């Protein structure tokens, strides 16, 4: 199993739009990607602008299929509209995703 984790911070006043987009992405991902085990955005209890996105996939191929999916590509293009680059896992407009493999 592969777990992908990314953090995004909304521009002030854009958190509602960002959350709506991420919830829609989660729904599309879970409904349309067979290799996706779970895909969930979590809002920080300390900062309502900050969202952690956790995706779990059966293997690396399933993660790559997610990255290439039309619904992910649409969101990727929209990121600069509502996400701050400062203090984010975003570099040059690209979302930095931390990948973890299950130990056991």
TrEMBL record:
Protein name in the entry: Antibiotic biosynthesis monooxygenase
InterPro entries recorded: ABM_dom, AI-2_Isomerase_LsrG, Dimeric_a/b-barrel
PROSITE patterns: ABM
Record's keyword terms, sorted: Monooxygenase, Oxidoreductase
Start and end residues of each ABM domain: 2-91
Keyword Oxidoreductase applies: yes
Entry GO MF terms: monooxygenase activity
Organism expressing this protein natively: Sporotomaculum syntrophicum
Recorded superkingdom: Bacteria
């Amino acid at each position: 199993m592969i777990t992908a984790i990314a953090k995004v911070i909304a521009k002030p006043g854009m958190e509602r739009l960002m959350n709506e987009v991420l919830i829609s992405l989660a729904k599309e991902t879970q409904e349309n990607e067979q290799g996706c085990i779970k895909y969930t955005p979590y809002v920080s209890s300390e900062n309502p602008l900050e969202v952690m996105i956790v995706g779990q996939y059966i293997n690396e191929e399933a993660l790559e299929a997610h990255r290439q999916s039309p619904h992910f590509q649409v969101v990727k293009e929209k990121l600069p509209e509502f996400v701050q680059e400062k203090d984010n896992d975003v570099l040059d407009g690209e979302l930095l995703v931390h990948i973890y493999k299950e130990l056991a």
